[in-house]
Amino acid sequence: MALPNKVKTLLDSAQHLGDLKDCANYFYKWLSNEFSKQPVRNLINSRAEFIDRLLIKLFNDTGLARYPELALIAVGGYGRGELHPYSDIDFLLLVNDTPNAEMTTALEEFVTLLWDLNLEIGHSVRTHDQVLEQKQEDVHFTTCLLESRLICGNHVEFERLRSHIVETPIWKSDDFFIAKINEQQVRHRKCHGTAYNLEPNIKENPGGLRDVQTIFWVAKKHFHAETLEELINHGYLTHEEYQELLECLENLWNIRFALHLAAGRCENRLLFDYQPHAAEILGFGSEGKASVERMMKRLFRIMSRVREMNQMLLSYFEQSILPDQSEQIAVSLDDNFERIGNKISVKNPSVFFRREQLLVLFEHIADHPEITNIEPSTIRTMRQVRRRLLGDLQDYAGCRDAFLRLLKHPNGMGRAFTLMHKHGLIAAYLPQWRNIFGQMQFDLFHAYTVDEHTHKLINNIYLYTDKEQKKDFPLCSEIITRMDKPELLYLAAIFHDIAKGRGGDHSELGAVDALAFCKVHGFTNSDARLVSWLVENHLLMSVTAQRKDINDPDVIAEFASVVKNERQLDYLYCLTVADIRATNDNLWNDWKNTLLRELYLHSQHALRLGLENPMDMRDQIRDKKKQAKQRLINLEFNEENIDAIWSRLKANYFTAFSEQQISWHSEHLLKINDLNAPCVVVGEQAMHGGTQVFVYSPYNANLFSKLLTIIGSKKAQIQHAQVMTTKDNSVVYNFVILEVSGNPMSSSRAKSIRRGLEVILKDPKKKIRTKKNRSQRFKDFNIKPKVIVRPHARADRNLIEIQAIDIPGLLTKIAEVFQANSLHIHAARITTVGERAEDFFVISNTDYQALAEEHKAALQRDLMKKLNAETE
Fold first, then answer.
1. Is pTM beyond 0.85 here?
2. Of the candidates 851, 803, 796, 801, the residue with the CA atom closest to the CA atom of residue 823
3. What are the boundaries of the region Uridylyltransferase (predicted)?
4. Minimal CA–CA distance to 536: which of 503, 562, 565?
5. Do 363 and 402 contact (CB within 8 A), yes or no?
6. Which H or E run includes 463?
7. In contact, 692 and 698? CB cutoff 8 Å
8. CA 386 to chain centre
9. What is the pLDDT, as a whole number, of residue 170?
10. Residue whose C-alpha is closest to residue 57's, from 14, 92, 27
């Protein structure tokens, strides 16, 4: 559809900048209104036509038309005639020689007018020689020139330039192909190698628009093709694949167009903030998460198809463009398969009529580490067979046998599983996997869809068998080496989130699915129960480690009673570590590693003692004191002085801290002369996975909130906090803090935090300024504050759970409410997941007793009032 006549009339009659702005505003409203009425291709072509007419008008109005040697050339996407609502406008002004002063003035006026119209432009002024010089150095610039077209000006110079672009030997087909492949690999790595990011980049993600464009660029350079359809004549595309590629391209264009309208600017990342509006524009409804899920599942299916076709076609191109590298001797693997270079290929396409051979192909990949990919004609055959499947692969006995062999193969869950996931064979085998394919997660801390998260989890488990991983995850590597049936761990990983998106408790539903799968596949009852138990309890260890005091013997006893035996503990630990690491690349850190490892070791010890005979707390304290005292004596401290310090501390201090922390605290207390004066130490080396902050001070009800404020003002994340009083009414604070990146503090940062704490300890009445700067990043998730007051394991205390948006100063606000309610804070567990704070406090009243019911209600009311006021 051409531009509406009114737009043409407004543009032609415009006399001033204001007239041009009015015309542009009218055009953009028309563009938005027409989106639901006509194909998106018409609209992106219409915007390119509008910009053409605008540039020609300004080219004439600014006097540039007076220079016959000048050519105005569209490049890149604009050169293809494809402009989304707010896409950048890239153009080249080609000149014969360096512009004189008069032309320079006209050029500057031309560009300034475009800026005044709020257009995002990418422009350059180059001579013919300068273009060729840049082309030689920059493959990206060469690619933009491949798609150039003349808007107005000297067509002779433009045609001369085009001939150099296509024919010049500066970038030969093979060099250009290699450069574009390398460029694509770098681009994919920046997207973590997956299309299934929860906030995907429509252009850059694997399977995005750039993958389609890369196919076209290579075809245009090597075959001089002007359209993708020409690849049918060259034998690289079937007619059906061409239609599929066009359909995928149209869908990607639609989503990108809607994203631009939702964002109101040039934006390629489909961020959470824009997803609901984009889904509504695209007609998926206005139901919030449900609409977004429908849109995103469509997008991820499209990206999966594009990525597969991109791989297939580029492999075909490689055989034509790099024949010396592609001509490899075929090595037979069996009657049906052979290896050609680093790719596996079928000898006869009809082999897949025996469905189990689809899985046997991946067994060969597991058998031969030198096979890294699948030959393109085999991908094509596999795609055709996959689409013609009736039922699920697991319905075939031969497929079940092959899947079990793969599951038990030492390398089966490595590259073989990754390629099965990439090419849709897991979804073809397991019907539940199809339900989680492209399934969104709206919990702020997941970075990937459910299926991709599960794939990454399985890959993490597989890496435990890699010798290189032993230095980073020695305990997991040791456990999996002695594990009798690692295939059960992989099965639990496959099913741990398989029921997400169905409603209900996904752990319970997944456990039922896992049990049914094991029975169909002939697992023993005990093995099936183990897999089902792991799926149902896969969150148990992370919740216990991050929300409870793992130095409390009662917590360990409770956890161990659920785990029951060391075998289940081994499986659960390996699954938990792999699960957290697969959730988000930024979520895992040494602190979490230390928490889980200590929970594992404490629980292992409890299980070995026997659940009916748990270790007595007095024995635990005696062992810790003995080890800590020996460390201090080795540092030449007097035993009598050590006992004098320890006599001030209550028994709960020695249960709460490790012997390493006890000796570290005591070392610094022994160095000060006056124990009635405050002492603050910030560790300059990581301990227990984080930077330790130790404060010993006379009791001050307001001090806790002040310390929290100082630490927060230094942009440090509090991972854990412990607070306890001494026998002489002093107070001990211990914080574990990390940088925002998840790393422990550097030495200089530790010193800075210590100085800030020392200032407030010297003058507790000193006022501290805090900035209220709530991030708008996840405003659409509508996280409402929640406060729950629970009984504690000790009858004289209460446990308070608080969930809220993690605004700056949140902990300080909570501490202020505690202070106003005259509460003692005995311990705190601080957890931040995405922008959700999940904090736990152990408290008592002024008499060190649990709260009465009316006090609980008042505290809950005060906290909710404060949190609602701060997060509005």
1. no
2. 851
3. 1-332
4. 562
5. yes
6. helix 450-463
7. no
8. 30
9. 58
10. 14
